Amino acid sequence: QVQMVQSGGEVKEPGASVKVSCKTSGYKFIDYGITWVRQAPGQGLEWMGWISTYNGHTFYQDKLQGRLTLTKDTSTTTGYMELRSLRSDDTATYYCARAYGEGHVDSWGQGTLVTVTS
Amino acid sequence: DVQMTQSPSSLSASVGDRVTITCRASQSIRSSLHWYQQKPGAAPKLLIFGASNLETGVPSRFIGSASGTEFTLVISSLQPEDFATYYCQQSDEIPYTFGQGTKVEIK
């Protein structure tokens, strides 16, 4: 079955960087993209960006442009999300999800809580 | 960015009730509208994609429809396991924005 398994929670100081991994299995990696979504505590869902696992092409939300980098490793069927220059309002649960070409996502990781605190 | 306005933000209903959630897009998004259900402490779950297509394994009481830029999710007969927060999402234009969510609570 399709699985998206994310790395564990992180605690970071303001200004630091975090890199979250998303190990996929159960499907052909390059046939679906990976979308990243975050959710601040008690808040709604925020679309962050998308990466093509076929050619590495990316789209990012404008407000994260310059701080966010999505990458993938086809050999290990893993996606990565790196967010730099962390601020307190980056504290959130970060999700990866398998993305169809039409834009919807069907299988989600378990979420990774990133806490930014001094 | 395409703004997705979801209403209501919360509602109280009883088991067996018919529940309607609406999502309005700020511009045409064709049928690129999807619905997710999220329970506390869990990742979201896809219910409906392409405005009206039921995801495999999702009960048929969940019905999606569209009229222009207004999209509707109907739960025809609310079940105890349906108490959750529901989000719409558009995928017509980057960034793929979500609605703010509708929390369905027990009356």
Question: Could you please describe the fold and organization of this structure?
Answer:
The complex is a heterodimer of chains A (118) and B (107). With 118 residues, chain A is mainly β. Chain A has strands at 3-6, 10-12, 18-25, 33-39, 46-51, 58-60, 68-73, 78-83, 92-99, 105-108, 112-116. The model of chain A has no long low-confidence stretch (mean pLDDT 97). Chain B has 107 residues and is mostly beta strands. Helix content of chain B is 0%, strand content 48%. Chain B contains no helices and 10 strands. Chain B has strands spanning 4-7, 10-13, 19-25, 33-38, 45-49, 53-54, 62-67, 70-75, 85-90, 102-106. A 6-stranded mixed sheet of chain B has the order 2-10-9-4-5-6, with no helix packed on it. In chain B, a hairpin with a 2-residue loop joins strand 7 (62-67) and strand 8 (70-75). The interface between A and B is medium-sized, with 22 and 25 residues.
